[in-house]
């Protein structure tokens, strides 16, 4: 069984990739199988901008986890509801 056939047989709803390192291969696999290609998972680029409560490692993990749950057909309101506010204000400069 080829990879394409296996993805179809398993009913995979989403193929995940990275926003930082887009993949033409993953995109083509998604096109050939008819599944969604989600290329917004974050590797090291924090969400939001410095000063935002989600601009943290916890914000990155929350975003990725919720995105994967939803991409696989679930719902993630409890993940999104987790308070990720840091008790210590982030005043660092993060040059991009």
Quick overview:
By secondary structure, this protein is an alpha+beta fold. The protein has helices at residues 3-10, 24-33, 57-71, 77-81; strands at 14-18, 36-41.
Describe this entry's structure for a reader.
This protein is of the alpha+beta class and 96 residues long. The chain folds into 2 domains: 1-41, no CATH class; 46-84, no CATH class. The chain is elongated, with a radius of gyration of 16 Å. The chain has 4 helices and 2 strands. Helix 2 (24-33) links the parallel strand 1 and strand 2.
Strand content: 5-15%
Q: Give me the number of helical elements.
A: 4
From the helix content, strand content and strand pairing, which structural class follows? alpha+beta
Strand order of the largest sheet: 1-2
List keywords for this structure.
96 residues, alpha+beta, two-stranded parallel sheet, 4 helices, 40% helix
Helices and strands, with pairings:
Blueprint: H1 3-10, E1 14-18, H2 24-33, E2 36-41, H3 57-71, H4 77-81
Parallel strand pairs: 1-2
